[in-house]
Specification:
By secondary structure, this protein is mainly β. The protein has one domain: Pnp Oxidase, Chain A. It contains 4 helices and 14 strands. The strands form 4 sheets. The protein has a 7-stranded antiparallel sheet. The longest helix has 9 residues. The radius of gyration is 18 Å and the shape is globular. One of its GO terms (molecular function) is oxidoreductase activity, acting on the CH-NH group of donors, NAD or NADP as acceptor. Pfam families: Flavin_Reduct. It comes from Tranquillimonas alkanivorans.
Length: 201
């Protein structure tokens, strides 16, 4: 099968998200300039640089009360900071609650019953019991072609690691089984890992 996206795929559901998988989930917490807090998952998320450490996430939708974008991007525009919380399998249900199309005044921490803690390097809340949290300062927001497509880049200024996820000095993802986004309504979790040496190592 071959298709041009501009012509449509002819399938019951768009296969694009099922092709580019698995994708890590950036559970982004923000605080607006008015003090209101937001927590939302984004599956267009990844690390993009080592030195200094940098991450990105993309927001591809909009809400009627947020002028062409979503709460997360709007808050980051206002304050210049955000926190990426890593999602473990055990938190899949509360993460899913936070993905709802709630009005801007709804605090997803409260809505889903998620414990929060204050970040150390930025004025923002983080998910208290997440396996890891990446505190970020905004570097740039890039608008992509298409309606409401924005990529947010941030420099990581503080990192929290949950103690039980550190094994012999290494961050062991099998201790918390990170959640990954697949296509459609599907997810996966990492339960085992293997290593490969690069040529010449």
């Amino acid at each position: 099968m071959f298709y041009r996206p501009e012509d449509g795929h002819g399938l019951p559901h768009n296969p694009f998200n099922a092709i580019v998988t698995p994708r890590p989930i950036g559970w982004v917490s923000t605080r607006g300039s008015d003090g209101a807090e937001n927590l939302a998952p984004y599956s267009f998320f990844n690390a993009v640089a080592y030195v200094p450490p940098q991450v990105m996430f993309a927001s591809t939708g909009q809400k009627d009360d947020r002028e062409g974008t979503k709460d997360s991007v709007s808050n980051i525009r206002d304050t210049g900071v955000f926190c990426v919380n890593i999602v473990e399998y055990a938190m899949r249900d509360v993460m899913n609650v936070s993905s709802g199309p709630w009005p801007r005044e709804v605090d997803e921490f409260d809505k889903a019953g998620i414990e929060r803690a204050e970040c150390d390097t930025i004025p923002c809340s983080r998910v208290a019991n997440a396996p890891a949290n990446l505190e970020c300062e905004l570097t740039q927001i890039v608008q992509l072609p298409g309606a409401a497509n924005f990529v947010v880049f941030g420099e990581v200024t503080g990192i929290h690691l949950r103690d039980d996820c550190l094994v012999d000095g290494q961050f062991d993802v099998t201790r918390f089984q990170p959640l990954a986004r697949l296509g459609y309504r599907d997810y996966a979790r990492v339960t085992e890992v293997f290593s490969l040496k690069r040529p010449g190592e």
